[in-house]
Records
---
Amino acid sequence: MIPHYLSSLFSLEGRVAVVTGAARGNGAALAEALLRAGAKVLLVDVLPAELESTHQRFRSDGLESSTLLLDLTELGAAERVHQAVMDAFGACNVLVNNAGITLGGDLLDYSDDAWEQTYRVNLKAPFALARRLTRTMKDTGRGSIINITSLNAELAFPGNPAYVAFKGALKQLTKSLALDLGPFGIRANAIGPGYMRTSMTAKSFADPVMHAHRRDHTALGRWGVPEDLAGAVIFLASDASSYVTGIDLYVDGGWLIKGL
Ligand SMILES: NC(=O)c1ccc[n+]([C@@H]2O[C@H](COP(=O)([O-])OP(=O)(O)OC[C@H]3O[C@@H](n4cnc5c(N)ncnc54)[C@H](O)[C@@H]3O)[C@@H](O)[C@H]2O)c1
């Protein structure tokens, strides 16, 4: 049996969370972790079929999820998320900005559209959601914002200038939020996944050379799976991290510590 002390420290019973990009991959695993720790979760995504099937999977396990089908780059998206979470659960205590896109391309031909679209999903939407939802969190005197960054918030990889730039910016935005929202009891932290097996990395996972390179660059000698993010998100959403704000928590199998 789990001691009461431990379960209450990590429990999300009575908390409400919003997770963006929750239809599949990392977002679905992050949402599932929060749900299993006791939270009610609004799942936001632009993919109708995946969103519904993930929601149904959760509901059939007795977990309390709700959905909002939405393109986060739409005008007024943050207001719609706020309305949906209030309609479904009447509160919001945790925001996980997970939705993200990666549009690779050679620098000399990199399109304005790819730059702009990456900016709107990976940086502008997290900011707009944080700004809108913290107004609600403020009323309860506490809250937790968790931004999903990347190794690219620290390191540059070739052929993806927008992803590198806006993951770096999201890391810094997290620190800015932590400072501005600290006085209201709202914490803001980042989780930076290493290479996880999802749709986003399907090509490199399937390529034997890239697969081995990414596996061998980690200290743990393996790719990550989305479920590896569960402990980090429960920690940062719960009272277990009550005095933790403004940090970058890398869940990367030790990728960042490796020099040679
Ligand atoms: N997979 C990895 O190795 C890895 C590593 C580091 C960081 N990340 C980050 O993790 C997050 C999730 O990525 P993933 O690997 O699960 O990829 P994914 O493509 O499987 O998931 C991204 C989700 O975001 C949703 N989304 C994208 N644009 C949206 C929009 N405009 N409105 C609403 N929803 C939108 C997608 O529909 C999808 O469900 C991203 O922020 C990504 O940058 C992934």
---
Amino acid sequence: MQRSTLLRYAAYPTVFGGLAAFVLVWSTLGNSPWPAYGLVAVAGIAVVALLERIQPFEPAWNHDHNDTITDIGHVLVNLGLLSGTAYALHSLAGWLPSMSIWPNHWPIALQILAAGAVMDLGLYLMHRLSHRVPWLWHLHAIHHSSERLYWMNGERRHPLSALLLAGPGLVVVVALGASPLVISSWLTLLSVHLAFQHANLDYSLGPLRRWIGGAELHRWHHKREFEDAQVNYSEYWLVWDHMFGTLFDPPQTLGATDVGLREARFPTSYFGQLTWPFFRR
Ligand SMILES: [Zn+2]
């Protein structure tokens, strides 16, 4: 088998599957998620970045588009926010109001999947709202402003938009009584999945491409024309796009200049992007 074919089909199952196996064993053993989860998430994201160099989907997207420094800022702030949220959940365990109806007796893998499904539905709904409500869109537009798709785009978000996207689902699973370990396990998996979802990597999910939100279908969500980008909103499970009629899976592939926004003068600096939703012209 050629390297290209092997990498194309083995990249996601090997990296994400390996991460999922680690998280499952670690949480079953009852070990502390910190700092292990943070370290494996960073390692998983680094592998995605490395694989992009070996087998890019679009070679032009591996070159700086006057965005690398800004995106490093987004990655540091948003991964910090994610770890801070997970850390706060663990520190506040037992203090947060909860209905205590979560099935804590279920095997940990099922609990992680269940919590993930609730948070994923929350993300889908907030993502759709972010394309519908003008002030939410102005915060979310930073995520769509990138002129290329690569591993850092998963975290290229206004921190306020990140909180609004993930917050409602997170509040629901906490209110239901899911344990901090279950929640942080899913957040760890999601952080690496988001790098894959936006990766400039020529990989495929094979028969699962219409069920798990990988880059193959998600690239269409970043189409430059706003009216064309109202598809494939799901973060992990594409079942939400199936259910709500927003799945789009055409036979052709996107070109190197097909992603981004129509706005030609979108700010490129980190602080320019942070303030753009409030002071845009
Ligand atoms: Zn979007």
